[in-house]
TrEMBL record:
Residues 216-269 form the PAC domain. GO terms for molecular function: phosphorelay sensor kinase activity. Keywords: Coiled coil, Phosphoprotein. It is an enzyme of class 2 (transferase). This is histidine kinase. Residues 307-538 form the Histidine kinase domain. SMART domains: HATPase_c (SM00387), PAC (SM00086), REC (SM00448). Signal peptide: none annotated.
Length: 567
């Protein structure tokens, strides 16, 4: 396949020109040639730059290869220039090569011409590609430098072997310097580093050069012309290496972080203010919750007092009646003695009546004593909130005893299925408050409008954990409301005596005091099932020092408001 070849031929001899072109065609070149023999003709030919190469005789009448070479240089064309002559010496050939000629061939040895042409065409193409790549690189650098400068980003370009650094105008202006006022070296850059940042920044550069990081990226403070310090970000990478891989050139973008740092400082101050406000509001809310919880405790104790006083009415009434009967019988016996009318049988009947009355008094006195002791345990536990070791069944039974009048009035029966011997090291007062709250919740809400109700309280111990299950056969809770029942102040009896804190306090006590979990299972018409799971030995608070024992107290301020919708 013929290779197209466009030649500008500087030759005054027709025969020599024909020999030269023939040798190229024989080498598979499809030659298109224009022949000139003076400066004017060559200038005119060079005005249409479509040539692949120039072949010139050394010496022509009124013209020469040197003159042709000079005209080619003036035209700014990078074309292969080959001299073909009969009488060129070695010294002359060297001078021509220094002047820009690429090769010379003797007319008597035209066999060298075609290989020389092929070689120089390849070299010309390589030079063209190199120029194109260099121009593309210059254009690219110009574009990104323009874009970076337009965005307010500075650039510093480091020639690593020499240590020279070129700072862009934006880079120097960023620090208030004019062009040339910053030393154009890597030492000039380091001289701007804040003393507290210098070692860190230089170490980051060493790490990057060692390959420990994929790119160099550091935030630091740099000195401005007025002596102030400005936060900047340098983000760069090595863009040139030698044949051995050694770094030769590095380019870094510099970004002014002043505005970002100002915003960060403002955000930090706002966050600190917000944290202070949240802390203050949280403290106020805790105090309010503590007061509400204390009110609930007192209200609970009020219910217990009312219940116990009702329970005591019967045995005390019986004791009064029996004591009155005893008094009357003794008075009757005393009168008979004074009148000498006391018979043996009369004395025996009188003593029997007195014995019966005393038995009634003793029995009801013991009953009253049991009620009072139960009330004392409940009231002491709930008012002092002291930690001690106690039997789970006994403590729950004490609460049920105190609530006996209330449950009977509501026609609710309570079935207690807790075995003896489940010992807890915890806070019985809080446990009694839980029992009181859930029973009152069942009576107020679960059994509302029902002729009677049934409650079952069960418990079992599984290793170090205790599971207490409370269930009733009340109305139940709809699924869409179950996520609300433990929220503070949520109640369906608003304005009817319901505070909305009963189950919220239960939830809080289980999690904050007993470190346990509470699960609710319910559906409309199927009652409520509350499953409490907690350690048999309540963990000590985080701030407790030393071991726990009877009499340890817990601060109600440790309560937290349960998240909405949690159980």
């Amino acid at each position: 396949m013929m290779t197209p070849l466009s030649i500008l031929l500087v030759e005054d001899s027709d025969s020599d020109a024909e020999l030269l072109l023939r040798s190229l065609r024989q080498a598979d070149f499809d030659v298109a040639a224009t022949r000139v023999d003076d400066a004017a003709g060559m200038r005119l030919a060079l005005a249409a730059p479509h040539w692949d190469l120039v072949i010139s005789d050394y010496n022509l009448p009124g013209f020469s290869a040197s003159a042709a070479l000079a005209l080619l240089g003036e035209a700014g064309l990078d074309l292969p220039f080959i001299v073909v002559s009969n009488n060129i010496g070695e010294e002359t050939a060297v001078l021509l090569m220094r002047a820009g000629a690429h090769d010379y061939v003797m007319k008597g040895n035209l066999a060298r011409l075609a290989p020389a042409v092929k070689r120089e065409l390849k070299e010309a193409e390589r030079r063209r590609q190199h120029r194109a790549a260099a121009q593309a690189l210059r254009d690219s650098e110009e574009r990104w430098k323009f874009a970076l400068e337009g965005a307010g980003y500075g650039v510093w370009d480091w020639d690593i072997p020499s240590g020279n650094v070129v700072f862009s105008a934006c880079c120097t202006a960023m620090h208030g310097y004019a062009d040339g006022e910053i030393e154009a070296s890597i030492g000039g850059r380091d001289a701007l580093l804040h003393p507290d940042d210098r070692e860190r920044v230089q170490q980051a550069m060493r790490d990057y050069f060692a390959g420990a990081t994929p790119r160099y990226k550091q935030e630091y403070r740099a000195r401005c012309r007025d002596g102030s310090w400005k936060w900047v970000l340098d983000n760069g990478m090595i863009v040139g290496r030698d044949e051995h891989g050694a770094p030769q050139r590095m380019i870094c973008i510099r970004i002014d972080l002043s505005e970002r740092k100002r915003v960060e400082q403002s955000l930090q101050e706002l966050n600190e203010q917000l944290e202070s406000r949240v802390e203050a509001r949280t403290s106020e809310l805790r105090q309010a919750m503590a007061q509400i919880i204390e009110s609930e405790k007192l209200a609970s104790l009020g219910v217990l007092v009312a219940g116990v006083s009702h329970e005591l009415n019967t045995p005390i009434g019986n004791m009064v009646l029996a004591a009155t009967a005893l008094h009357d019988k003794l008075k009757e016996l005393s009168g008979a003695i004074e009148r000498n009318q006391l018979t043996r049988s009369g004395l025996q009947h009188g003593l029997a009546d007195c014995l019966g009355a005393s038995e009634i008094i003793a029995r009801n006195g013991h009953r009253s004593n049991d009620l009072i002791e139960s009330f004392k345990r409940v009231s002491v536990d709930q008012t002092s909130q002291r930690r001690r070791t106690f039997d789970l069944r006994t403590t729950v039974q004490d609460s049920l005893t105190a609530l006996g009048a209330i449950t009977r009035r509501a026609k609710a029966t309570v079935e207690l299925n807790i075995p003896d011997g489940i010992m807890l090291d915890s806070y019985p007062g809080h446990l009694e408050q839980i029992i009181n709250n859930v029973i009152m919740n069942s009576i107020t809400h679960g059994f509302d409008g029902m002729p009677d109700g049934h409650i079952v309280i069960e418990a079992r111990r599984d290793g170090d954990m205790v599971e207490l299950v409370y269930s009733d056969n009340g109305h139940g809770i709809a699924a869409e409301l179950q996520h609300k029942v433990f929220e503070p102040f949520y109640t369906t009896k608003l304005g009817q005596g319901g505070s909305g804190l009963g189950l919220s306090i239960v939830h809080n006590l289980v999690q904050a005091i007993f470190k346990g979990q509470l699960r609710l299972d319910s559906s409309p018409g199927q009652g409520v099932r509350l499953q409490f799971t907690f350690p048999a030995q309540t963990p000590l608070p985080n701030n407790a020092a030393g071991g726990a024992g009877d009499g340890d107290q817990i601060d109600d301020d440790g309560f937290t408001i349960p998240p909405f919708g949690t159980m």
